[in-house]
Amino acid sequence: MNLENRLRAKLAERQMAHRYRTRRIVGSPQGAILQEGGRPLLNFCSNDYLGLANHPLVVAALHQGAADWGAGSGASHLVNGHSAEHHALEEELAEFTGRERALLFSTGYMANIGVINALVGRGDRVLQDKLNHASLLDGGLLSGADFQRYRHNDMAHLRARLENSGADQQLVVVDGVFSMDGDMADLPAIVEASRANNAWLMVDDAHGFGTLGTHGRGTTDYFGLNQTQVPVLIGTLGKAFGTFGAFVAGSETLIESLIQFSRTYIYTTALPPAVAAATRASLRLLRDAEEGRQHLQQLITQFRQGCDSLGMALMDSMSPIQPLIVGSDAKAMRMSARLAELGCWVSAIRPPTVPEGTARLRVTLTAAHNSEQVDKLLEALNDAASQAGDEEVLP
Ligand SMILES: *Cc1c(COP(=O)(O)O)cnc(C)c1O
User: Fold this and answer.
1) Which residues carry out catalysis?
2) What is the DSSP letter of 47?
3) Which of 23, 28, 68, 150 is the most exposed place for a label (fewest CB within 10 A)?
4) What is the distance in A from the centroid of ligand 1 to the CA of 236?
5) pLDDT the model gives residue 165
6) Alpha-carbon distance 34 to 273, whole Å?
7) Is the CB of residue 107 below 6 angstroms from any atom belonging to ligand 1?
8) Is any atom of ligand 1 closer than 6 Å to the C-beta of 322?
9) What family does the Swiss-Prot or TrEMBL record give for this protein (predicted)?
């Protein structure tokens, strides 16, 4: 079979399975309301948890950054793309996370691939929660280390795996807040199990920064865990920070090692300096967004209580990620389409992004929403659920 035919067959197969991915074209900046195809939709699927992606001060810093530094960085960090703006942001992120140093990466995906591969290889072992983000799983697979997964948040399973190892070095890797379920890793227990077995620990807190902990310092701050307990800490800048990019925070030795050995750090162009400038502005806002975080918590409570009284089962999540498990892919797609008809944008997340039989509506709430908008969503969900349920029993 030639390539063209093979691809066509795979596309047709995906379509049949209700797993075909399509993109809707957004016609406005991120916010509680998005324009799509000329109509406004209430946005319940972005990761812009604090509404910073279109915040006037962040946008102004991006403008000023472009005026000061131009559009592009021109080269990788190790050649001559590492500007004073990047450097200042790294110092501010180190201070923010309470780590010795921080290092910018161009995306979270690249940070995860590059960090795992700089730390472990053949003869070592990587242990990951089954529900870790794809970039962490890919990093583990690529590393050449013995790659094993443990059942989601199952500490007995993790301990058993850690204790039964002939590897030179073990690395435990986990999401702080799980991106498709919204629950948190049991970090205190993971820290303890890692320490007891001389394993290193890496936490990806893409969804914890900005939303959890004092001043939005994330999951490790929430649990009071320092650099010795969590030596490798990853953050992304495209979620609550509202901009783009990622960082790793940890010891001097860790960061210097990444600069020497992390291929996704070394062999790629540095972020535009203007993005670093915008992120410095968003970091200041994120730190001081206590009111926004409180408001967000109120919306989360309102949403959870609302679902409860509608008889909709929620996951064990206190984060802005509030998924509703639907089960079948087709039903998740129908409900998402009905929600759009009713003016709410909630994306259906299907396998292979989530395990088989757990297709879901991944609702995310942000500080930019108000409580009337959450009420509208609850009403729409109720309608979509009853309609999807009716259709399910038709022949
Ligand atoms: C979004 C996400 C990433 C990827 O970050 P990007 O900067 O978007 O590449 C990594 N890890 C987790 C847990 C994420 O949710």
Assistant:
1) 179, 207, 239
2) S
3) 23
4) 6
5) 87
6) 28
7) yes
8) no
9) Belongs to the class-II pyridoxal-phosphate-dependent aminotransferase family. BioF subfamily.
For the CA of 109, the closest atom of ligand 1 is 9
106 Cβ inside 6 Å of ligand 1: no
**Which residues, including other chains, have CB under 8 Å from residue 160's CB and lie 6 or more apart?**
none
Is any atom of ligand 1 closer than 6 Å to the C-beta of 246? yes
Hey, what amino acid is at 347? S
CATH of the domain at 148: 3.40.640.10
Instruction: Find out whether 344 and 369 touch, Cβ atoms under 8 Å.
Output: no
Give yes or no: residues 65 and 138 share one domain: yes
Nearest CA to ligand 1 atom 4: 108
pLDDT at residue number 394: 41
Q: If you average pLDDT over residues 198-204, what whole number do you get?
A: 98
- In testing the pocket of ligand 1, which one of 49, 181, 236, 244 has its CB within 8 Å of the most ligand atoms? 236
User: Is residue 74 a contact partner of residue 376, using CB atoms and an 8 Å limit?
Assistant: no
| Cα–Cα nearest to 171, from 110, 101, 218, 232 | 232
In the predicted model, what is the mean pLDDT of residues 276-285? 98
- The domain of 360 spans 21-50+289-388
Q: Domain for residue 2, yes or no?
A: no
**Residue of minimum CA distance from atom 8 in ligand 1:** 108
**What pLDDT, on the 0 to 100 scale, is given for residue 390?**
53
Burial of 36 (C-beta count, 10 Å sphere; 0-12/13-18/19+): middle
Ligand 1 centroid vs 179 CA: distance in angstroms?
Answer: 9
Ligand 1 binding pocket includes 219 (Cβ within 6 Å): no
- The tally of domains found in the chain comes to 2
pLDDT for res 277? 98
Please give the Cα distance from 66 to 60 (Å, whole number): 10
Q: Which atom of ligand 1 is nearest to the CA of 110?
A: 9
Task: Count CA within 13 A, CB hemisphere, residue 270.
Answer: 27
Q: What is the value of pTM for the model shown? A: 0.96
**Distance (Å) of CA 357 to CA 22, 118, 316, 331:** 20, 35, 18, 11
Other Cβ atoms within 10 Å of 102 Cβ, number: 21
Which ligand 1 atom is the nearest neighbour of the CA of 205? 13
Cα 54 to Cα 45, 147, 244, 309, 322: the distances in Å are: 16, 40, 12, 34, 23
Tell me the per-residue pLDDT of 207-253, one tens digit each, with 9 for 90 and over. 999 999 999 999 999 999 999 999 999 999 999 999 999 999 999 99
| Residue 118 confidence (pLDDT) | 98
- The residue from 255, 287, 319 where one domain ends is 287
